[in-house]
Every structure is written in structure tokens, then in C-alpha cells.
Specification:
- By secondary structure, the protein is of the alpha+beta class.
- The chain contains eight helices and nine strands.
- A five-stranded mixed beta sheet has the order 1-9-8-2-5. It has a two-stranded antiparallel sheet with strand order 3-7.
- The longest helix has 35 residues.
- Homodimer; disulfide-linked.
- Belongs to the TGF-beta family.
Length: 240
């Protein structure tokens, strides 16, 4: 993935840390074999305090409330509670600390749990969106968003096991305005030529016209790095 366009964030900079907390983008967590030792090196340099820490806890609480609606999340509540016990979140709510972890350890785990749960939420929302679109389409065939899941189950990837990249499928027919809001006058002219039997070297195609990004967290000898990759998930389709 290093060959893809990306932006690398340095979490030793406060602005980069704030951006990571504020972001709702789904992400991939990469843990090499020596990640535990690398994590231990970072705890002493971790600076997550004040209003930024409060914002982190608020976002974690909000995403937990949303995920409680998902049956799969409800079925794994015991696992979630176990993970939460290693975070700063229980201390923030007045609970005791059964793990006796230093606060720096707990804050880092809280941030990682938030990003993992945001990824779960994004995956769930995307599946619901595609499902609604397909139900509304019925038996009609036209250019629309289709779910496409990519398997990420490698030894060094912890979260997620897969991610929904999506794809666009279906023919481009007139009229476009009823089903496909994103079209151009050029596309309409091509469709008009196609209907009149004029040969075209390339007929209008159903393609993604809007994307969302993805963040990747990896642990290296230089610390925890966050890389932002744009245009990783197709969210809207159009005819071009």
C-alpha cells in the first residue's frame, strides 16, 4: 500500500493527535511481531490530556450507543466489556481499575478501541446503505452502488478482518436523473448518440464518482504512525 497516494501523520505532534481523535474515518491496524515492545516504548511519550481526552471519551461513548443497535455487537458484548476494562473509559465513569494499568497505557488503548469501533460502525453503515439501495431498485437494472468486501485477514492486521470497498455496477440508460443524480451533459450526449445507433468507441460506464478515505495505524521502531489513504471506499456511483 506504500505505493498508493497517502499522508503520514506524526503523532508526536499535537495537531496530528487531535486530527486522529476528531476523525471518523475507518482504519486498518497493523501490528508487527514485536508490536508489544514498540507499544511499551510509546507509553512514556503519550500526551493525551484535558479537552482532547474528554473529546475522546465522548466520541467513544457515542459510538458505543450507536453500535448497541447491531445484533452482532450485542452477541459479542462480553468481549467488548473485556476490551473496555483495559481502557481509560471505566475510570472516566467512576469505576474501579481491575487491571491496574498506568493511565498512559489505558489512554492509548482507549484511542485504539475508539478507532476500531468506528471502523465497525462504518462497515455496518455501508452495508445498510447498499442494502437499502438494492431494495429500492427492485428488479430494475441500472447503475448503482454494490457491496464489495475485501479480505484483510493477515497476521499483522488486527482490525478490521475485512473492509467494504464497494463497487459500481449496472448499465447506464436514459433517463438518468431519476436514479443517478451525478451525471453530466457530456454523458447525456453520449447516451443520445448511442440510442440513435451512432457507433461509440466507449459507451458510458457506471463508475464511482465519490469516495471516502481510510486510515492505517502501524507500529514501527519510530513509534506509532498514522497514514491517511484517500479514495479507498466508493460511496456514490455515476455514469461517465
Amino acid at each position: 500500500m506504500e505505493t498508493l497516494p497517502h499522508q503520514l501523520l506524526n503523532l508526536s505532534e499535537q495537531a496530528a493527535l487531535e486530527r486522529l481523535v476528531q476523525s471518523d474515518e475507518p482504519l486498518v491496524l497493523l501490528f508487527p511481531q514485536n508490536s508489544q515492545a514498540l507499544l511499551e516504548q510509546q507509553f512514556g511519550h503519550w500526551r493525551l490530556e484535558g479537552s482532547l481526552l474528554q473529546r475522546l471519551l465522548e466520541k467513544l461513548q457515542a459510538v458505543i450507543q450507536e453500535l448497541r443497535e447491531i445484533p452482532a455487537f450485542q452477541a459479542n458484548m462480553d468481549l467488548f466489556q473485556h476490551l473496555l476494562a483495559f481502557c481509560y473509559y471505566p475510570l472516566g465513569s467512576g469505576s474501579s481499575d481491575p487491571t491496574e494499568l498506568p493511565r498512559g497505557h489505558r489512554k492509548l488503548r482507549t484511542l485504539l478501541l475508539l478507532k476500531a469501533l468506528q471502523t465497525v460502525r462504518a462497515h455496518w453503515q455501508e452495508k445498510r446503505k447498499v442494502s437499502r439501495q438494492n431494495r429500492s431498485a427492485g428488479s430494475q437494472s441500472y447503475c448503482r452502488l454494490q457491496e464489495l468486501t475485501i479480505d484483510l485477514r493477515y497476521d499483522f492486521i488486527v482490525v478490521p478482518a475485512e473492509y467494504t470497498a464497494n463497487n459500481c455496477e449496472g448499465p447506464c440508460w436514459r433517463p438518468l436523473s431519476a436514479r443517478i443524480p451525478d451525471y453530466s451533459s457530456h454523458t447525456l450526449l453520449l447516451l443520445d448518440m448511442q440510442e440513435r445507433g451512432t457507433p461509440l468507441q466507449r459507451s458510458p460506464c457506471c463508475v464511482p464518482v465519490k469516495y471516502s478515505g481510510m486510515e492505517i495505524i502501524r507500529f514501527t521502531g519510530e513509534g506509532m504512525q498514522v497514514t491517511t489513504y484517500p479514495n479507498m471506499v466508493a460511496v456514490e456511483c455515476g455514469c461517465r
